[in-house]
Amino acid sequence: MILKNKHFKRIWLFVLLLFLSGCAVYAGLNLDQLFGKPQPQERIAAASSPIASHYIDKVKPIIESRCVVCHACYDAPCQLKMSSAEGIDRGASKEKVYQGTRLLAANTTRMFIDAQSTSEWREKGFNPVLNERIQTEEANTQAGVIARMLKLKQAHPLPEQEVLNPADWDFSLDRDQQCPTIEEMTSFEQNYPEWGMPYGLPQISDKENQVLMAWLANGALMATAPLPNAKTLEKVAGWEAFLNENSLKRQLASRYIYEHLFVSHLYFSDEPQPTFFNLVRSRTAPGKPIDLIATRRPYDDPGVDRVYYRFQPVRETIVDKTHMPYALNHAKLARFNTLFIEPKYEVTSLPSYHPDVAANPLIAFKQIPVDSRYRFMIDNAQNTIMGFIKGPVCRGQLALNVINDHFWVFFVDPAMANTPAVDELYASQAENLRLPAENESNTLPLTNWISYSKQQGRFLKAKNAFLNSAFENGEHLTTDLIWDGDDYNDNASLTVFRHFDSATVTKGLVGSQPKTAWVIDYSLLERIHYLLVAGFDVYGNFGHQLVTRMYMDFLRMEGESNFLSLLPADSRHRELAYWYQGANKHLSDYLQGEINEFDQPTGINYQTTHPKSELFGMLQKKLEIVLPDRYDITQSSFTGNSSLALNRLNRISGTQASLLPEITFIMVEPTQPDQQAELFTLIRNSAHKSISSLFNEESNRLYDQDTVTLVRGLLGSYPRAFWHLKEADLVSAANQISTIETEDDYRLFLDQYGVRRTSPEFWVFSDKLNEINQQTFPIEAGLLDYNRIENR
What we know:
Layout: H1 2-35, H2 50-68, H3 85-90, H4 118-123, H5 137-142, H6 145-155, H7 185-191, H8 206-217, H9 230-243, H10 248-261, E1 265-268, E2 277-282, E3 308-313, E4 325-328, H11 330-341, H12 355-358, H13 361-364, H14 370-379, H15 381-390, H16 397-400, E5 406-411, H17 414-417, H18 420-428, H19 445-470, E6 493-498, E7 503-507, E8 516-520, H20 522-534, H21 542-564, H22 569-579, H23 585-595, H24 611-622, H25 640-649, H26 655-658, E9 663-669, E10 678-685, E11 707-712, E12 721-726, H27 730-737, H28 743-753, H29 762-776
Parallel strand pairs: 1-4, 5-8, 9-12
Antiparallel strand pairs: 2-3, 5-6, 6-7, 9-10, 10-11
Helix pairs in contact: 2-8, 14-20, 15-20, 19-21, 20-21, 25-27
């Protein structure tokens, strides 16, 4: 009987699938009969036309503030990137970019790189979200996914409940996505009537809806990003000339610069409203249209004898989660000359693009002095680390649980490392410093991890032997080892916050003293970049992504070990035991052996029984000239009881902290009506026994040790919650949130001060928040991402 039932279920499921697929086919035939066969349309209007002006002035601002906040970058639902006209016309795909279980690397689908026309995207499996049949008002609103999604939302707004039913709404990062084609829309509307766009957020206003529906009805004509002005293009020509000199020395230097800046948004700092550019490789020389070389990685074989480095304008809306502004000016050009051109070194041949060379910068760029390479990276250290934080590798809990929730980063003084002996060490260890990307995008995890583990062990033994000699009897093993930013560069220290499945990096030592810290030297910084930025392929198979994550364990422990070397020997072991509570025997042997084989005493004369805290204090004192105060809550205009309330928020810990989201953005309206509202970010720092485990992070959590960091301004790309307060509410809000004990307590707090995703005021609040942020930091600010807003 059971077997018969199973057989019946299989038949029923098969019939259902046939029925559903038949419905889609029928819908497609019906649309064809009504509106003709689909084909891509010409949607880009002439830049000087009234239609283009209407799109730029009226339509685009609505799309950016209501659509791009969820639909941008690799993690856009259904790969629908609405941050450019070309992205909207490209449409959507049912394939996920972030797919951690695929056995083989996926085909790349990078906007403006892997296809150059809508027709090419159709061949790659992307489905239109705009009507591509006959262009009439009826067809444009009936045969377009966006139009149907907007109408669905207007017909079925969010239920009138503050917290949406979790059984009906999935806001998880890896949720199943429907991604209906126009042929599937009728079925989607019947099965998910409340899932119109914006998904899980309030409907847009009637006025905004009318503007969008009229635009769609008239054919959804758009304007592409405007070309840079003549003065900007003149500066571009100067920089392209610098980067494309013919000598081998200049070509090698330019390749190095490109491979470190390819994810950055370059801009000219003397322009009041700058244009952002990507640095790309082209088959064509400056003066000719860019013929883009589209490879998975920046160092893959370009397939041409000569590569040219060109400035390509960024054609998409700037969003915070990928925005890494990098200033160019006369001083920066002079600095590049000082670092790469003026030093006397000879380049006899250019390095190969073969993976076993190109994936290892210590081999590929060995002809460029280490001092030049290191200073180039730490000159803009935040940007260098930000590639790891804002690049495609940094998405999801499994990718991020390789780092602690809050730690400080320091750098070895380049003057201490600028010796022939250091250069010789790196040269001798080049083979042991190979990186996973040499295996390209399809990797077998286990065998490769064992190999890299042995390599790292051999390197650390050689490095520790070198350091034991260089720092004999603690000589130079003091805070002199730490770079002070040359007394002007505020990149000398960084703070990294992890927010479970995203992260943030900022300049300075933000927050209270953390559990751990890293001290980064040249080889470590270079390997982090080539592991997580230059060498990482978001489309790679599970083995590539897993080995990358596991290799980062080695690099984190190396940075931590560098920091520990400044502590007394007995404190080093105590700290390690504290940082890696419950570590398995293999990891314990690794930590106590190869990592901590360095046994020279510190040269610091400690005065207290808390040397780590004392060391942090010394480093804060050493760097105080270059420590920025941008995020310091003491810089707020609020005084008296309001200031005390902010300080109380900053001291939340334990149960109260554990109940808070990873990131809360707070807007406080001042008492004086002529003053602008102030923004703050409340960051939860989750405590762990250890972060050495790939899975089951929950078992490593120490909830009673959670803390928070309150900063002035917005810090983070993915808000989880919003609070909207009046200054007069600060004291009561701080008192209430400091005493919450349960989820119900937190819900009551949000009832009074929160702006939930269901709030009728959500979009008004969102607009004001983004406007203040953009006005305050016009170069750095980008649109926030709302895919992680909680439903609580």
